Amino acid sequence: MNWAEISAIAACIGVSAAIFFQIKNLKQTRLSNSAKMVLDCVAIFDSSEWLDHRSRFAKMLLDNRTGIDPRRDTPVLEFFEELAYMTRRGVLDTGMVWNSFFWVIEHYYPAVTAPPNLLEKARKESGSRTLYRELIWLHKELCIVCAREEGSAQYRPPTDDEIKQFLEDEVHLSTTSY
What digits encode the pLDDT tens for the residues 95-111? Predict the structure, then answer.
């Protein structure tokens, strides 16, 4: 082997190592950005404004569920839809979203999809098959993550009583009275 061949091999090894570390760095940056964005979403969702939204929505689900039109003034569902879209696109890490939001999603989702399914009703009335499709996707994905995290073959959804208790607790989050 001559020095030119050794030099070429060394250069290839150096370039390969640089590419490997660049890819690793990009993955870490993406994860770090996702963590920041998820924490920002948590801060928004737990702000006094959003506690009021959550409280109002939970009260509507308990008191007049069939009177809710998810196409209008349902900021909680809209928030979940945005969160879901960013997760499906890979902007947010699915595990981080599960860790920070599944507790509320796993209770709100069945509250709006139990018969009559308010999301399906809104999709039918609007003629839009894509209305809340991201939330539907996210719920399915997070159920899979939950089962895996709990070491179970299958996800165990909350009972009707657990959902009702959750909604009653959400009602009391409000910082204003109505």
Answer: 999 999 999 999 999 99
